[in-house]
TrEMBL record:
Highest taxon, organism lineage: Bacteria
Protein name, as recorded: Transposase
Amino acid sequence: MFQNLIISNELSLYKFFKQLNFDLYLTKPQLEHLEGTMTAMILKGFNGKVSDIAELASKRHRTSITRFLSKSNWDENLLINALKSKVIELIWNKSEKSQKPIYL
């Protein structure tokens, strides 16, 4: 689904978050934490353990990552809605280019 948005390094992950307008919903430190966490999850292959993320997240301790995910002041529904909108846009664009209908 994200063929045109393959995340190959942190710069493209940053661009992806900018496309989703996450910078409108998160502070700069929160965005940096999220980038580091997502990069570690992508590199390691996330299996649900925060300690796995902490191994690869630069300069982040396991407890800092847990605190960020559970106690940060952010509205996750805004982020989820932004991601859903982007996915729908990508599906719609692919349907227009291929001239094939979308089945739900």
